[in-house]
Amino acid sequence: MQVHVDQDRCCGSGMCVLTAGAVFDQRDADGIVVLLAEHPAKQDWDDVREAESSCPSQAITVEEDQAAG
Amino acid sequence: MATAAHPSTPLTVPAARGTCPFDPPPAYEQARGDQGLTRVRLWDGSSCWMVTRHADIRSVLRDRVFSADSSRAGFPFLSPGRRALTTDRPSFIRMDDPEHARLRRMLTADFMIRKVASMHEGVRHLADELLERMAAAPDRTADLVAEFALPLPSMVICLLLGVPYSEHAFFQRCSSTMLRTDASPAEVTAAQREILDFLTALARERRSAPDDGIISRLAAAGELPDEEIASMGRLLLVAGHETTANMTSLSVLTLLRDPEQADRLREAARRDAAGDGDALDTAVEELLRYLTVVHSGTARVAVEDVMVGGTLVRAGEGVLCMLNAGNRDEDAFPDGGRLDLERPGARRHLAFGFGIHQCLGQPLARLELRVALPAVLDRLPDIRLAAPFESLRFRHEMGVYGLHELPVAW
Ligand code: HEM
Ligand code: SF4
């Protein structure tokens, strides 16, 4: 799985940090998203998918591995 | 398309609630089961679309084809006062990106999760103090709204902004006028002016006598004129005031009516104190979902033709997203009419809105609720309602739903 974040779109809601704190954080200066793990560990995949769908400003996109389905 | 199914007179919104004061208006819930969007009528005879399904609300609020700019033709106003409110110096809640993002980003650091988490002890201390004072009443009764639910978030937001709490009676009067859907345009404009003038003067003062509040910081940064700072301050003051206050009092009432769920909250609080906050997080999210205090419809206007849930919305047509109806949508929340403090996925609720305007203060609101609700049940274990349930006055006429007062005894 590969995760992308678009800092220009992010509105700093913090939803991703609540949902998948191992993968997302917020910048100190302005609360904008930072990606902690571009290739998250398997145990975080469900949370990352949830973070993608609940990000209010569509700043998170997830690419699933073809092989893993 | 949707309209043909209901040839009768269109529904006028906001619609009345039914017998249960915790449930959304039955007409919204019925519309949710219909196909497409619902054509509804507003107070001034104009029409717009009502959106009631969870997925449709998400897609409207995150689509940049829908504008939050109330100066655009077709923007739906819920009352004459609302129209007056948005013409005098709108704050960024009524702007689109990139202007909205530029202003919002001046505040996102103040409300980010880590920053807000560091306020936990302070908020707890305030809550304990308020409850201690309240519990000292010789007749062991109090109005929980006036003595606890309202002062707590009010003190917190005043501290954050650097606004003297001694002025809270003034703010409460103004913000409640601004939120009343039955206030006249003249009343709303006057209330809004009073706050703006006060905050403009405060911003000017903070340039020469700074403190560590948000207003002072914005003034020192020198990017905004004093009137813009005042407009932002007003948004934070109003948004940070009544929302959490009403969530707190309504939640307490809900728990008083449902002892089993109250026990679940106590258990969640015990686990939180032992270091595992997940159950308390879920309980708070579920109360936000179930109660959805921002209930009167989140307004947008389409700037291009767009399909939503099988209905074509034309450029220049307004939409109202009924967050309370979306939060009971069975497709998103099975058995959504039931309060279940252990509900998986409760956080998908729309109580804070969705899209780029999703509540800026949500981490703070969550923190305040996580502190306030366990504190009430802990400090007043025998708390009960001190008036018949039927006599309670719910805030039907306010943009933020809740209770005018909550008489309790212990
Ligand atoms: C339980 C408490 C709260 C609820 C239910 C709530 C709900 C909401 C909702 C639904 C919106 C979106 C409005 C729209 O899209 O038009 C919103 C926006 C906003 N809220 Fe809250 N809110 C709460 C607490 C707070 C607090 C404590 C603050 C500030 C300290 C705050 C500040 C704001 C601001 C500034 C916006 C505008 C954001 C923007 O336009 O980008 N809210 N809130
Ligand atoms: S959920 Fe989306 S908008 Fe919110 S902080 Fe994360 S990336 Fe930004």
UniProtKB/TrEMBL annotation, chain A:
Annotated Pfam families: Fer4_13
Alphabetized InterPro entries for the sequence: 3Fe4S_ferredoxin, Fe-S_cluster_ET
Cofactor: [3Fe-4S] cluster
Designated name of the protein: Ferredoxin
Database matches in Gene3D superfamilies: 3.30.70.20
Keywords: 3Fe-4S, Electron transport, Iron, Iron-sulfur, Metal-binding, Transport
Higher taxonomy: Bacteria, Bacillati, Actinomycetota, Actinomycetes, Kitasatosporales
Molecular function via GO: 3 iron, 4 sulfur cluster binding; electron transfer activity; iron ion binding
Role: Ferredoxins are iron-sulfur proteins that transfer electrons in a wide variety of metabolic reactions.
UniProtKB/TrEMBL annotation, chain B:
Matches recorded under InterPro entries: Cyt_P450, Cyt_P450_B, Cyt_P450_CS, Cyt_P450_sf
One term of GO molecular function: monooxygenase activity
UniProt keyword annotation of Transport present: no
Region (Disordered): 1-25
Residue ranges of the TM segments: none
Annotated PROSITE patterns: CYTOCHROME_P450
Keywords carried by this UniProt record: Heme, Iron, Metal-binding, Monooxygenase, Oxidoreductase
Pfam families membership: p450
Homology family: Belongs to the cytochrome P450 family.
Protein name: Cytochrome P450
Source organism per UniProt: Actinacidiphila yanglinensis
